[in-house]
Structure formats: C-alpha cells, structure tokens
Amino acid sequence: xxxxxxxxxxxxxxxxxxxxxxxxxxxxxxxxxxxxxxxxxxxxxxxxxxxxxxxxxxxxxxxxxxxxxxxxxxxxxxxxxxxxxxxxxxxxxxxxxxxxxxxxxxxxxxxxxxxxxxxxxxxxxxxxxxxxxxxxxxxxxxxxxxxxxxxxxxxxxxxxxxxxxxxxxxxxxxxxxxxxxxxxxxxxxxxxxxxxxxxxxxxxxxxxxxxxxxxxxxxxxxxxxxxxxxxxxxxxxxxxxxxxxxxxxxxxxxxxxxxxxxxxxxxxxxxxxxxxxxxxxxxxxxxxxxxxxxxxxxxxxxxxxxxxxxxxxxxxxxx
Length: 319
Hints:
Shape: globular
InterPro entries: KDG_KDGal_kin_Halo, PfkB_Carbo_kinase, PfkB_dom, Ribo/fructo_kinase, Ribokinase-like
Distance between the termini: 49 Å
Protein name: 2-keto-3-deoxygluconate kinase
CATH architecture: 3-Layer(aba) Sandwich
Domain Carbohydrate kinase PfkB: 5-297
Keywords: Kinase, Transferase
Number of helices: 11
Pfam families: PfkB
CATH topology: UDP-N-acetylmuramoyl-L-alanine:D-glutamate ligase
Helix content: 25-40%
C-alpha cells in the first residue's frame, strides 16, 4: 500500500500527435505521451514536493504498461488494478492555428478503467491520504464509474481525508444536463471544488461574474473552498466566505494542454504545505504559466522555477 499525502483516481490515456501542424489523415509518424487529468495533477503536486499516488484500472497490455511506466518516470507512485479485459484509452491531438484550430479526438470506448469498481481498489490508500482528488471526467466515462466516484469520495470522507474535485466538463463525453445531474449528486461529498467559470454557467446555469459564481457555489453547496478559473484572466478563490483574486502570469504558450491540471496540482500541494488560499493561488498560477511553455500534458517544473515566477511576477504586478 502506498502512503502519499495526495491520492488521485482516474484514467490516463496515451496521446498521439502528428508532428508540427500535420493533419491526422496524412500523418506517417506520431509523438506518443501519457496524459490524463488526475495523473497530471499528481505529477504537478509531486513536483512541488507533495508525495502523490495515482490510482486506476489499467489493461495488462503493452500499451497499458507503457502508460504506467511513463507515469512512474515522473516520480509518482502508481497503484493500479491490472485487467485482462478492456483496452487502453488513447486520444489524438491535431495542432493547428486559426481558423482550423487544434482538434482533440478521443478513443476511449470500452477501456479497462470504465469497469473499475470501488471494491477492486485499496480504499485504505485513500483513507490514509490527506487529500483525495478526482475530476468530472471520470464519472463521464461510464455508469459504473459514476457509482465508483461517489463511493471513493464517501470512503475518503469516512477516513477523514479532504476531498478535492475538478469539475472539468468535457462536452465530447456527455451533455450539460447529464453532467449537472451527476455532479450535483457528488457535491455533498466534496470539500474543495475547482471549476471553470464557463462550466458553472453552461452546466450549472449560474449567472454572474467569477466572484459572484464563487460566492454562490460556496454558499449553496457548502464547500470548504471554491476555486473558479477564468483562463487568461487568472482565478478566484473563495474560502471562509472571503474571495481572493489571482491574475494569470504572462507566458509564451507552447502547449495549453494540462494547464488547468498544473494549476490544480500546485494549489493542492501548497495548501498541504500549510499555505493560505491567496498564496496557494499564486503558486498555482505560476505553475500553470510554466506548464504552457512545456510540450505534452505534464508540468515538468521545479519548485525553484515556480518560486521564481511567483517572486518576479509579484514584483512586476506591484509596479
């Protein structure tokens, strides 16, 4: 059994990308990287000094072993149920500028993780952690995972583990109506919610600016902490009925993929270190900015780099 401050649960896929801005239909070679919201968060937190474990159900196949092996190289613990049924999820990323735009194509039907049940997983790993984290992507993958997500959140609460959840709505996986029904059912088991302002409006039907959204979410659903992200404008943090605003740091974007996961992983890591919400938001924004300079899904950053961005960015903002 792994002993980590942070345990995450979800699917990690293999990402296949043709070079440069080639079209998938013409590609002769692909770059392969592992990527998934929950493992991305675990890696970002680990990079900032938080021992982290990623938990999942993975096919006992070359592609499954390839995925787990890459995650282990990033220093996190992996606690997986190896399955002889189901397949390894993949997705394809076709990069392009406007007006074509970057396109993501999922291939994650009938994957091993979609059959994962709570009784297959080591619940003590979750109960012994300080924070358990998952996202709204996981229950979108199957009805089984909707039940499993609820059971894991319940187990975490029973063990005294703080629960953190990134709403992470994906329109290619389910409708706003389906997402709202499932997510709001999960809300009573969540302590810390991270949600994009657009998702609060699109899925939950909330209105108002991000500060108002944070207040409404926190008061209506009784979360301990709410973080409302707003893209290039930064984020809003709500805690103890007080709202904190964090602007985004300037960055030259190489890849946007995984930026939100980097933000969330850093926020959790700094809160576990004892930082208050405003400080955790600073580190989260700095980590997200650094991630945008890095190809792939993972925030391969160092604590020193993040601290430099916080220090230099803070000075720039105060001038």
